[in-house]
Amino acid sequence: MTQARLASCIPLPLEHKVLVTVIEKAKDWALMHGVGMRDKKHFTKDAIQIAPFVLLPSPFPRTEFNKAIELQPILNELMHKVAHDDDFLEHTLQNTLQVDEFTAKLYEIWVKVKDEGITQPISLGMLRSDIMLESRCPHTENQCAKHTPYCSWKQVEINSIASGFGHLGPSLSLGLFRSDYLLQYPEGNKIKQVEFNTVASSFGAISSNLPDMSRYILRQLGHGDLIKNMPENRALSGLCSGIIEAYDLFGVPSAIVLFVVEEVSYNICDQRFHEFEISEKRPDIMIYRKTLNEIFEETTLNDKKQLLLEGYPVAVVYYRSGYEPAQYPSSKEWDARLRVERSSAVKCPSIHYQLAGTKKVQQALAAPGALEQFVRAELCGRVRDIFTGLYSLDFDESGERAVDMALEDAERFVLKPQREGGGNNLYGADVRAALLRMRRARERAAYVLMERILPPTVAGYVVRPGGAVPPPVTDLVSELGIFGVIIGTRDKIYCNRQAGHMLRTKLADANEGGVAAGLGALDSPYLL
Ligand code: ADP
Ligand code: MG
Ligand code: MG
């Protein structure tokens, strides 16, 4: 696939001995500052290994970074409003519910607690909007020439090319040969939203340490002058202050905070840092970690609908699990979820927030006129600008059109089910195969179709636990996540702010780059 390139922050490759030495230092820095995870293959609670990381911070255009940061409170509010718009959620999800059992189960809980009467009107959103840089211009050549002097045809370095991008060279539009030209934004790449996470948005804590790690590495390499281009990242304190504010709104002195965790937490550093941070800022707040199964066994609801654990009322429930079907192996986990939802605890997220974070809702918000229902008119353009093509696959005229479009040029799209946690999407030939298989199957409505973003590549080194030292220089692409915290009820917003960022980077030819899923590597932005 043809991709535009960005220059790495220092010239590569590094000399062999320099590289080996700096990687050894960097690994120790990582281990000693919790840039780590538990080993999935040889699990033990007694050791932590390095989390995969990129040796040098990846370049990111400063203006686009700032744009993403400034947009975050607007996106937080958008999701908050969507989560509280019962009609919109109901209407948007109705076809999905027929064919996606997991979403249907969440939905069932939502309907049940609504019917019973919501006990806790306050929700805590700890959100993460994920974005990539799009290197291709969305306009046709004519549009650009006519409306704005926006884009320019540029020769790109790599010559293999995916079939049929609508915006590729003139030769393509004439149906002749594929060209090595890409219609690019002349002033650089533009941010486009990959997805919006409303549940268990992770890596804020570890990512807060990464600028320091990158600074240390740059200094060791004699490039201390460059550290001025690395933005501060206060994701950990920002996210934790959300939990603390929600705790104070609950307002019961003996109350506790409950983290809902997996049976086995591999991403333990990221989770524990939250606990340490809260404990340091607020020694009065005790944090418990429980699985959904343990919540089923060990909690009760009292007559005030307080969720009680070991006799203490739970003020805030923070889900780091519960976002995928495998985390509900039996009806007990679903019962636990319902109990929490019924309770007076402030949930992060409430069930309607989780529904608002589905891919289906993201697709519905990209449809003409949808955003205008939630976002002030003067801000709509800025939000819409970061959306990329998203299409429903429902059984109607537009769904059929989307299927035809994808079958014609599957490389241009990603097929997404209503899942979280990475590794669930389909790409390229698999999009085509799946759509041919599902053409007349109801299952089709469980997916949305999304235009594939083509980010610029940058050369770099990925350091992995047990990986080759030194690793080869490889072509990489990055995904930036901006965290947001919002607390509010249907009618009142108590706080709404941007809360730091994370950057994760993967091999340019890999489809996905989840760090917890073992595909991506932690990174931090180097602003250009
Ligand atoms: P999940 O909720 O499972 O993380 P995502 O929508 O974030 O689902 O998709 C997982 C990964 O797939 C992303 O981190 C990104 O690497 C890749 N991806 C998703 N959508 C796109 C897209 N439109 N263009 C390019 N890559 C994408
Ligand atoms: Mg997600
Ligand atoms: Mg994602």
UniProtKB/TrEMBL annotation:
<keyword id="KW-0547">Nucleotide-binding</keyword>
<comment type="pathway">
    <text>Sulfur metabolism; glutathione biosynthesis; glutathione from L-cysteine and L-glutamate: step 2/2.</text>
</comment>
<keyword id="KW-0067">ATP-binding</keyword>
<dbReference type="Pfam" id="PF03917">
    <property type="entry name" value="GSH_synth_ATP"/>
</dbReference>
<feature type="binding site">
    <location>
        <begin position="450"/>
        <end position="453"/>
    </location>
    <ligand>
        <name>ATP</name>
    </ligand>
</feature>
<keyword id="KW-0436">Ligase</keyword>
<feature type="binding site">
    <location>
        <position position="197"/>
    </location>
    <ligand>
        <name>Mg(2+)</name>
    </ligand>
</feature>
<feature type="binding site">
    <location>
        <position position="506"/>
    </location>
    <ligand>
        <name>ATP</name>
    </ligand>
</feature>
<dbReference type="InterPro" id="IPR004887">
    <property type="entry name" value="GSH_synth_subst-bd"/>
</dbReference>
<dbReference type="GO" id="GO:0043295">
    <property type="term" value="F:glutathione binding"/>
</dbReference>
<feature type="binding site">
    <location>
        <position position="359"/>
    </location>
    <ligand>
        <name>ATP</name>
    </ligand>
</feature>
<dbReference type="GO" id="GO:0005829">
    <property type="term" value="C:cytosol"/>
</dbReference>
<keyword id="KW-0317">Glutathione biosynthesis</keyword>
<keyword id="KW-0460">Magnesium</keyword>
<dbReference type="InterPro" id="IPR014049">
    <property type="entry name" value="Glutathione_synthase_N_euk"/>
</dbReference>
<feature type="domain" description="Glutathione synthase substrate-binding">
    <location>
        <begin position="255"/>
        <end position="356"/>
    </location>
</feature>
<feature type="binding site">
    <location>
        <position position="195"/>
    </location>
    <ligand>
        <name>ATP</name>
    </ligand>
</feature>
<feature type="binding site">
    <location>
        <position position="479"/>
    </location>
    <ligand>
        <name>ATP</name>
    </ligand>
</feature>
<dbReference type="GO" id="GO:0004363">
    <property type="term" value="F:glutathione synthase activity"/>
</dbReference>
<dbReference type="GO" id="GO:0005524">
    <property type="term" value="F:ATP binding"/>
</dbReference>
<keyword id="KW-0479">Metal-binding</keyword>
<dbReference type="InterPro" id="IPR005615">
    <property type="entry name" value="Glutathione_synthase"/>
</dbReference>
<protein>
    <recommendedName>
        <fullName>Glutathione synthetase</fullName>
        <ecNumber>6.3.2.3</ecNumber>
    </recommendedName>
</protein>
<comment type="function">
    <text>Catalyzes the production of glutathione from gamma-glutamylcysteine and glycine in an ATP-dependent manner. Glutathione (gamma-glutamylcysteinylglycine, GSH) is the most abundant intracellular thiol in living aerobic cells and is required for numerous processes including the protection of cells against oxidative damage, amino acid transport, the detoxification of foreign compounds, the maintenance of protein sulfhydryl groups in a reduced state and acts as a cofactor for a number of enzymes. Participates in ophthalmate biosynthesis in hepatocytes.</text>
</comment>
<feature type="binding site">
    <location>
        <position position="195"/>
    </location>
    <ligand>
        <name>Mg(2+)</name>
    </ligand>
</feature>
<comment type="subunit">
    <text>Homodimer.</text>
</comment>
<feature type="binding site">
    <location>
        <begin position="416"/>
        <end position="425"/>
    </location>
    <ligand>
        <name>ATP</name>
    </ligand>
</feature>
<dbReference type="Pfam" id="PF03199">
    <property type="entry name" value="GSH_synthase"/>
</dbReference>
<feature type="binding site">
    <location>
        <position position="178"/>
    </location>
    <ligand>
        <name>substrate</name>
    </ligand>
</feature>
<dbReference type="InterPro" id="IPR014709">
    <property type="entry name" value="Glutathione_synthase_C_euk"/>
</dbReference>
<feature type="binding site">
    <location>
        <position position="427"/>
    </location>
    <ligand>
        <name>ATP</name>
    </ligand>
</feature>
<feature type="binding site">
    <location>
        <position position="512"/>
    </location>
    <ligand>
        <name>ATP</name>
    </ligand>
</feature>
<feature type="binding site">
    <location>
        <position position="504"/>
    </location>
    <ligand>
        <name>substrate</name>
    </ligand>
</feature>
<feature type="binding site">
    <location>
        <position position="420"/>
    </location>
    <ligand>
        <name>Mg(2+)</name>
    </ligand>
</feature>
<dbReference type="InterPro" id="IPR037013">
    <property type="entry name" value="GSH-S_sub-bd_sf"/>
</dbReference>
<comment type="similarity">
    <text>Belongs to the eukaryotic GSH synthase family.</text>
</comment>
<feature type="binding site">
    <location>
        <position position="271"/>
    </location>
    <ligand>
        <name>substrate</name>
    </ligand>
</feature>
<dbReference type="GO" id="GO:0000287">
    <property type="term" value="F:magnesium ion binding"/>
</dbReference>
<dbReference type="InterPro" id="IPR016185">
    <property type="entry name" value="PreATP-grasp_dom_sf"/>
</dbReference>
